[in-house]
Design a protein that fits this description.
With 300 residues, this protein is of the alpha+beta class. The chain has 4 helices and 10 strands. It has a domain of 176 residues: Glucose Permease (Domain IIA) (Distorted Sandwich). Bound molecules: zinc ion (ZN). Zinc ion binds next to loops.
Length: 300
């Protein structure tokens, strides 16, 4: 019994020494290591070896660093995150509305957002006021059309040809509601510098100047008051016309239908050179362009 008690004073002394060491302000200061002390607001940068008062001393008396098993708490607050917006993944269509097309390619990684203001990517057919609207949702100005999240509607169930869609037919672009449910109010703008190659009864076609010379097609603008004509050279971000509901005859809902196409060079079976245009899924290019706009990046 006596033998067991004998080392106890020595152990206590060692413990006291360890405790003193832990509180000793001469121990390495947190400022010496990579983590930076939290700072409420940015100030002038401090040299790591500069004598510090207050903050560093307080840090030294804080609890010891966590053991390896403990979750590591970040010392510095995260960098301010840019404005973000909620958008569903590419190719994710609600059940019964078509196959969608799972594609993670940002085909046009530097294009401009095609509207001068905010917009809501969703479906004009399956949204409120559309031909396949949810029960009771008869007004195209219903808030469901003007709220986040965005959603992809490339390859939504349609009868138009689209070889990328599982059935061989499907929606050929992305529907976008303008900032408000008001026609002839919100500008559509050029996604890239290029040439207006065609103006149809309810379409405006822009071919980009820079390779790979994507073709962008804008549908349903106010065709009587367009800001461009065939043959015009436009700059990125230049106003083209205002979003409306023109559809050649019976109007559609107020929205911009936006398409991207790319030319692919090929050769026919009998040796003739041929250029084939195929629709590309524009959703992620639009999402990235919109994110850049939210971040305050200018276009053009
Ligand atoms: Zn459409």
């Amino acid at each position: 019994m006596n033998d067991l008690r004998k080392p106890l004073p020595l152990a206590l002394a060692m413990l006291a020494t360890l405790t003193l060491t832990a509180c000793d302000p001469k121990t390495p200061k947190p400022a010496d290591g990579p983590p930076k002390p939290p700072s409420a607001e940015p100030g002038p940068p401090q040299a790591d070896d500069a004598p510090s008062e207050g903050g560093a001393e307080q840090e030294a008396s804080e609890p010891l660093p966590p053991s390896p098993g403990d979750p590591v708490q970040p010392d510095a607050p995260p960098a301010p995150s840019p404005a973000t917006f909620e958008h569903n993944p590419a190719g994710q269509l609600p059940s019964g509305q078509g196959s969608g097309y799972l594609d993670r390619t940002v085909w046009s990684p530097s294009m401009c957002w095609p509207l001068a203001e905010a917009g809501f990517a969703n479906s004009q057919v399956y949204g409120a006021g559309g031909g396949m609207a949810p029960p009771g949702k008869t007004s195209q100005c219903d808030s469901m059309n003007y709220t986040l999240p965005w959603r992809d509607n490339f390859c939504e169930a349609r009868s138009r040809s689209n070889p990328l869609c599982g059935s061989g037919t499907g929606h050929q672009g992305q529907d976008i509601r303008p900032a408000t449910c008001k026609k002839n109010e919100h500008w559509a703008v050029a996604t890239e510098a290029g040439t207006i190659t065609d103006i149809g009864t309810y379409t405006v076609t822009l071919v980009a100047k820079t390779a790979p010379h994507y073709t962008y097609r804008y549908l349903h603008m106010q065709m009587t008051t367009l800001a461009v004509k065939e043959g015009d050279k436009v700059t990125a971000g230049q106003k083209l016309g205002k979003v409306s509901n023109d559809f050649g005859g019976t109007p559609t809902t107020i929205h911009l239908h936006f398409e991207m196409r790319a030319g692919v060079a090929g050769v026919t079976g009998d040796g003739k050179a041929v250029a084939v245009h195929t629709f590309l899924p524009p959703y992620l290019s639009l999402a990235e362009a919109y994110q850049r706009k939210l971040n305050g990046e200018t276009c053009g």
